Amino acid sequence: MKVDLHNHTPLCNHAQGTIDEYINAAIRNNTKIFGFSDHAPMDFDPKYRMSFSEMQKYEKDILDAKKKYADAITVLLGYEVDYLEGHMDKRVLTADVDYLIGSVHFIDEWGFDNPEFIGEYQNEDINLIWQKYFNAVEAMANSRLFDIVGHLDLIKVFKFMPTQDIKEIAKNALHAIKNADMVLEINAAGYRKPVGEAYPSKELLEEAYKLNIPITFSSDAHKPEQVAMFDKEVTQLAKDIGYSECAYFINRERRFLQF
Q1: With a threshold of 0.90, does the pTM exceed it?
Q2: In the chain, N or C: fewer CB atoms in 10 Å?
Q3: Are strands 74-82 and 99-103 parallel, antiparallel or unpaired?
């Protein structure tokens, strides 16, 4: 990946490795632009995110690394923000960063991608679960708070697939993303999960391409060895559909790079 914008640090409490290790892994893989977007703090689910008191340390550490490695790679500062009504915080939403990734990890406060709560899939119709998820993605896009859509179809993580047409389920969300002028990440983490494919699927990425929604790339690394893992697969996926450039952000301003 020439551009890799979604990566974590140990401050989220479920990642390993130092900032230097992540950056050096990116340099070894010929990444040109590498972004950290660790889980932003909020007053919900604190076990899997940094605290508000750690924001200053996180931002300073990334900015220090940006200077340290300036001759070798461009390092960017961002946050991955959970879209959850009533729990998002202005301290995050107005932070002085390069970009914000908007992600949906919760349906009615159910952490659907957490193996601890996988049993909840048995309690409701799978089609309804998928529709609720994409309704939340639509609302996230309509909020106009974020630059990038995180792992568009994360709901497929455990391979509980709907019986209805996925393109129809996601249709309104994709149109909202287009109307909000957001960037869609191709996230390689899905290859490491039971579903065994990128987020989003080829069929949804094809729909995004028809709508002229721009893309970027993400390892979503939680360990240094995951940086640029499956980079060939996600790059080829984008090329097969017709994409030839990917987005990145500096001070919330979108730019493009050919890949």
Answers
A1: yes
A2: C
A3: parallel
